[in-house]
Amino acid sequence: MPPLLDVQNLRVYYHTSHGPVKAVDGISFSIEARERYGLIGESGSGKSTIALSLMRMIKPPGRIESGHISLDGVNVLERSEEQMRQIRLAQIALVTQGAMNSLNPVIRIKIQIADGLRNHSVRMNGQALDDFIAGLLWRVGLRPEVANLYPHQLSGGMKQRVCIAIAVSLRPKLIIADEPTSALDVVVQRRVMETLRRVQEELGASVILIGHDMGLMAQFTDRVGVMYAGRLVEEGKVGDLFSKPQHPYTQLLMTSLPTLEEKGIFQLARGAPPSLLDLPTGCVFHPRCPYKMERCTIEEPILQTTWSGHQAACHLLDNGQVEAEAQEKRES
Amino acid sequence: MTALLRAQHVTKVFGGGLISRSKTAALKDFSLAISTEQPSIIGVVGESGSGKTTMARLLLGLESPTEGEVSYRGKDLRKLGRDEWLQFRRDVQAVFQDPFEVYNPFYRVDHVLEVPIAKFRLASSRREAQMLMEQVLQAVGLRPGETLGRYPHELSGGQRQRVMVARALLVKPKLIIADEPVSMIDASLRASVLDNLRKLNEDFGISLIYITHDLTTAYQISDNIIVLYRGSVAEAGDVRLVVKQPRHPYTQLLIGSIPLPDPDRPWTGETAPSEIGRQAKDGAGCLFAPRCPHAFEQCLEIAPPLYLTDSHRSAACYLFPEHAPLRAEEMDSVFIHA
User: Fold this and answer.
1) Tell me, what's the pLDDT at B18?
2) Would you tell me which CATH number, out of the four given (1.25.40.70, 3.40.50.300, 3.40.50.1240, 3.40.50.11690), belongs to the domain A5-221?
3) In terms of CB atoms within 10 Å, which of A168, B89, B234, B245 comes out highest?
4) Which has the higher per-residue pLDDT, B182 or A127?
5) Taking CA atoms, what residue in A is nearest to B50?
6) How much is the pLDDT for B32?
7) Do A252 and B239 touch (CB under 8 A)?
């Protein structure tokens, strides 16, 4: 069976007066039905640009330069604007960090939910509509009375759940959650993420979770892709990737993470991500890489299968050096 | 011994005016003393609405307490004379959350450093001012050559926030109050700003009050921690004790809610409130009772005092009645000194 979402060689550039900013530069990945896939990266790594590309919501000066996106067998990049409008929300929905602030402050929640339905020609009135909305709210753990409230009467977590309710109102096949809980406290975050997971499982939808919180990725996803400077540098099952990270960048992400284990150990992240206007030659990560070799400054590595069964793009993998050196470093 | 900064039984109530009749106590009966003899890092954690920013604003004199007083070297902040106020501003510095908002986009970043130099007359010549700026930038790990002369948009969020730390450092303060200094910075750059703050404490003997909703970073840099819940102290003490063996049900909930970067250690579930907890009405009793799995009758009647559960930690919960209760002003007596 073909995957639900298949992205091949996607390139998205933002054209500025200084030249093209290569936000997404040749990324391929696919997602199975019912799968929870995570995209991890720092700001500027291109993860939100991917979300917008999948929705076909890239605005000038941004442009999808090349590539192929197919959702359930439909080539998204070849649809007309009107067809795309039909696909959004019905097939593929987006929940962002600021989604809760996109609710209209002077309109009751139920009208805002009904808007989405009406725009997709769902004819429902009176009691049927009220019941439908109550059902949606119940699904995200909110009381039916919430339908009659205004956004300011709700807490941040409740508003974000309303946005999830809107996102799933037409039973989409794919939900893109772009940092859906970054603005929320941990306790509320867990509730929102549990809500998202439950709804996703009930609908049988797939989810792409975008973010930089490694903890959230570990807790929520089945499979993870690590992005750096518009590229996918490592991808694999969440267990493999977290227990045996192969790319030096993934290792850096893991070690620079403050934990509740050992106290006062700061592994400082070396350097900063490169400018997307002026990318380094060879491997884009080489200026920050502790294992840099001459080859890394010349030749760009491609994703290859590692000994631990997942994919990573690093020249060191050619001779199984990464794990050995990381091991050495840990011991010293 | 006169403390550098002392809050005594501070309560701050918002609302209750003509427009909004409902009153909200953002902070209740809060006491804390910061001395100059034993510089330490105190973490203050809590969710939004817990009163942590109100606390910061009260300690900085940006807000006046409704009850109680905040005093600087023994004198009420509201009664400080002009010169004393200037001295207070030098000794107690602030670093705020948003490293974007504090900059005027039309001025070079030098401007934010030049203002305090002029204001506090820190340098007698341009050259001296330049040297001073270079010194503080180096102290926070920035290269002056790559920082000075730039516009704010040319620096990353982490760099901008480090310039703000450098700015606080200019006046050689005794205390820095940092309110969510890293929450708007990329995760991978947070460590560098936190490391800067910690070094200021170690190298210059500056005390730090680190306010955050992120328990993990608070654990990493603090010696002692205060957990606030809806304006009251839920638990306070040695950060290792509080994080490793949390006593208060709210602290337990907070710690259990942190997603661990290990797929094999799943989130622990949130426990439903007890039958009695569900009947709790807002206002009387323990504020956490409506969410507490252990709530019993006593919790609904009167708010619990802080109990000295360990020699270096106290928790405001009736689950620990066998321990001695502390008065609010004794909260920081449990703190460890590095």
Assistant:
1) 63
2) 3.40.50.300
3) B234
4) A127
5) A185
6) 94
7) no
Nearest residue in chain A measured CA to CA from B243: A260
Amino acid at A258: P
In this prediction, residue A57 carries a pLDDT of 93
User: Is a pLDDT exceeding 90 seen at residue B219?
Assistant: yes
Eight-class DSSP state of A172? -
Question: What is this structure's pTM?
Answer: 0.86
Strand, coil or helix: A105? coil
- CATH number, domain at B254? 3.40.50.300
- Nearest CB among A214, A259, A268 relative to B192 is that of A268
Tell if the CB–CB gap between A42 and B187 is shorter than 8 Å. yes
Helix (H) or strand (E) holding A111: helix A109-119
Residue A269 DSSP symbol = P
When CB atoms are compared, the residue of B213, B220, B262 closest to A263 is: B220
DSSP states along B226-237: EEEETTEEEEEE
Return the number of CB contacts < 8 Å for A and B.
108
Mean pLDDT of chain A, nearest integer: 88
pLDDT computed for residue B16 by the predictor: 67
B257 with A189: Cβ contact below 8 A: yes
**Residue A187 sits at the chain B interface (C-beta within 8 Å):** yes
CB within 8 Å: A215 and B243: no
